[in-house]
Amino acid sequence: MLRFLVRGAVSSFALVAVGIAFAAPRTFVSGGGNDANPCSRDLPCRSFTAALVQVDAGGEVVVLDTAGYGPFRISKAVSIIAPPGILAAISNSILSDDAVPVAIYVQAGPTDKVVLRGMNVNIQSGNVFGVLVHNVGTLHIENSFFKGSNVAGAAGLWVDAAGPVKLFVKDSQFRTYSNGIMLRGTNARINAVIERTRVQDTTNGVWVANDVKAVARETVSSGNIEHGFVAHNDILSAAVVTSLILERCTASNNTGTGVLADPASINRGAITSAQVTISNCVVTNNSTGVAGTFVPSPGAPWPAMLITRGNNTVRENLTNSTGTIVGDGGF
Amino acid sequence: MKHLPCLSLALLLASGAAAAAPRTFVSATGSDVADCSRATPCRSFGHALALTDAGGEVIALTSGVYDPFTINQAAAITVPDGIHATVTSNGPTDSRNGVTVAAGPNDIVVIRGLEIDTSPAVNNGSGASGISYDTGWRLIVEDVTLVGNRVGYVKAGIVAEGTTQPRHLIVRNVVERDYVAGIAVGLLCCSTRPDYVELVVEDSQFTDNAFAGIELELKDHSQVVIRNSIFSGNGSGSNGSGIYIVRGNVVHPGAKVTLEDNVVTHNTDFGIHIVGGDVGEPIVSMAHNVVAHNPTGIKVDECPSGGGTCGGGTIAYRMGNNTVRENSTNVSGAVTLYSGF
Asked: A60 — contact with chain B (CB < 8 Å)?
């Protein structure tokens, strides 16, 4: 009996000695952690990457204190949580599968649920995407901050996944990117809800394209060098209509158009390609306030619709509205 | 004789008895043989509550995992900023609710800043909800995250059923997902439900629940306000609603529900589903909501779905300022226009 106990103890010691760790439903990172640790609360890891390896699918990585934790790739269902008052900084990049520099790369399973809460991405140089999504079922981004280094090339949040995606963004900020939020439903539907989010100092603030059905509420897109909110469609199928509904949003101080329903760039015939509905919004101090049914050239009627509920404040733009604006009296 | 108080104190200390305190503390490195003070915190909320005065407060000092617990007195559970305290199930067969509120009829209970994760409980038979509000005058839930797993029948983010006692529930800035229902009053587990409920929900998010973001079976003159909240991705297959409201009984004049400034989108069947009874209740008033991208935006059934007498009265009202569009069917059933004031 004693021999078995001794053998067991030796085996346990050997496991610890070689650093073999078992996955856990919840792992932890700390500025004073070490990636050789098991990422437990008492022995936290130093990086998100190490903690992600050791957390169960569907588990949670918790940030214990303020520090830089490095860029990371997500390949399974997981929640990464930095609670309020703790800053989880990321200022470097990794490469995505298609060799794009990115701070947070989401390449998970098609039904996986991923939560990012309290991330603080601050890129000093280079074209680095904030969050690049190539595969996920549901993505929640909450209470997070993303700042790129310039307005060329990279987006704060880019979703162009292989399968359908449910996206929820709340209480977050995106600054200094090519696009603050870019949703491209090229391969499958993206259902998105964006709330209490601010996008500024980008090229285009919020851009939704192709098979996207999005609602943005209490969201601000301001100070962008082109447009504030854009819906656009490049899908040939008449069944795909890009939709963006803005409720209590603000589009201001954009060099181009505050809210733009952008026509298709391919010939879909006379079928509406994209539509933006605005309700209780403020659109002000842009070159153009709102732009509706607008065609790229005479004879190319691939219309995009700007729909107003009639309750918006659209004023003090150089041109308040252009194109045909459609009314929706409300219900 | 004059030495007796000292002796009593010594005996108290020796036996480990601890006096209740207005404020106690828990920590992931604490111990339940401690006195739950700031210097020697306890390990569990349950033990700390036992050492807390009625009306007192339990404060989490460190991030970490904590056991499910029951609150049976007036108390506040507080997780401050900078701390991520998770109450979680202990494996797949754990049937405990994350937090059970079984307080007295005059007690006020506050749960603030906690994460409650019952998703590990995937095979627990009778189910586990995030918060089961069984008794107590008022429950305030704020800045809380509730995470379920969509498995099983009897699970909700917050459930108020099981007794007929009236409930007064305030839900603010809550993120909830993956239960059968985000908030359930009736319909979920029990034929017994509150005789009266007063519910205020604001600034919250209810997503990916297997049946509904909120389901309410309202009795008597219950009063509900749901505002500034998100209901999205709720339902399974072709069954499920963002907000589901039905009459709670057939002999009373009806409850009142106000839906204001909500976004109800991408649910699998109905955005908002309202079902009446033989005297027309409940009365649901809708203003400034966005209801879009559902198979049916607003569905009104003035008659009970299970049969019975149909009242035929108006049960759904709109203020004319809702954005209801881009659903396969925007509105089905009668909704009456009312004017603002």
From this structure: yes
